[in-house]
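Table S2 (text version). Query chain:
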Amino acid sequence: MPILFEIIWNLLLLAQWIVLAQALMSWLINFQVLNIRQPIVYKIWSALGRILEPVYAPIRRMLPSMSGMDFSPLVVLIGIMVLKQILLRNQMAFY
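Corresponding structure-token output:
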């Protein structure tokens, strides 16, 4: 496999795992499994927020308000999956 393809693929996988980690962590915080007052939890939560907020903000502006439900992580995950499929279908362009 060409190195450029692998770099792009791994960046998409990393982005996918970061979004999933943030979504899972938000559920655990909302169900009070994790406490945001713990220093390590707060550091991880704020770091994920700083990384993902620039991605989520434009999507949140486009989506209609859903009474407290945030579907922007789902939209980002679908976008990553679409990008991965496009990358796979055009894999021969990297040779």
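Notes on Table S2: The CA atoms of residues 7 and 17 lie 15 Å apart. The chain has three helices and no strands.
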